[in-house]
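Lecture 7 notes: from sequence to structure.
We start with the chain below.
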Amino acid sequence: MARRIAVGVEYLRDYRAGIARVGTDLFKALMAADKQTEYILVANREMPPEYGSDIQPAKQIQQGGYYQGLPDFIAIPFWVQFQLPRILSQLEIDLYLHTGTPPLLPVLPPWSKIKKIIFLHDVINVKSPRFFKPITFVHGSVAKWLALRSFDHILCNSVATKNDAVRLLQANPEKITVVHLGLAEAFQKLPSTEAVHRARTIVGNDGRPFVLFVGTIEPRKNLEGLLHGFKLSGLNDNHRLVVVGATGWMTSNIFKLTRKLDLAQVVVFSGFVSDEELSALYRSAALFCYPTFDEGFGLPVLEAMACGCPVVTSGIPAIREVGGEVPIYIDPKSIQSIASALREVAENRHSRENMARRGIERARKFSWDRAALDVFKVMDTIIQH
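Predicted structure tokens for the same chain:
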């Protein structure tokens, strides 16, 4: 009899954000790599069309229930805590893989024979509470501490995240396996002509070069530092700064600073774009700058390298684990460091070409096929144990 494994994925109001796409891409890779196991995706919302078309409806359970009208920071924990356990109790499965928000209470009763694995993406709210709302900090910190003890095994997206979990949450290192993330298909091939045209429309059709940033607009991403560094570098005289990503939390200072630094005419806030459009933006940018204060992995850095875009980014452990020797690393707390690196890359064509070539080579080391194989080995061991 074939094994049955359920994978829990949480979709935000925009499907392309962070952990939702990681969970979905991993689910698709597992289904492709392991034909002997029946995989079932359990989601709090209907899957986006670009994902759902690849997965049979019979393989999906989508139940948002009464929480659909609530903000994500309320709706998702409620769904995880109260609806997910009910759904799982009705499924005859051998293992549950949780890829989203860690639950405060057990998702299954103590007497359940179903094995449980959780994918821990970071412990940033424990390390740096100043970047989060109080309720997010408290819930996230407590839930992660409890999850590391109630789940049978933990997957971490980087050695950096594993080390943080052991140091800050006293996790058992023997229960943790590191599984590096992979690349979405859109970043492994050239974008369509239509996507390139749409990307040019976002940036402006005057041919002006641009610096690209990708990520949710929130304090941890250090957009204030990027704005100051962009201004200090002098690139604002002949470059644009394109910011791709949703508006998150604690963001009012960002837009005020843009006006204060007299950058409103050269900074573009695009909101979300499709993966194909993002691929086109990476490929046409002068460089990609990601001066984040902290990350669990740093997926945009991997995407940029895969598309041959030179990368300037923070020299923090998780990012170095992804970028290796390819990016120019900066101190995210130093505006001068950001400005100098921006100038160094923007003004040196040979350096950009060299970084582009090495970035493509580096990105080939990361794939969802490899990640799926690593996860499958862990699941097989846990089920057999």
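Points to note: The chain has 15 helices and 13 strands. The longest helix spans residues 72-89.
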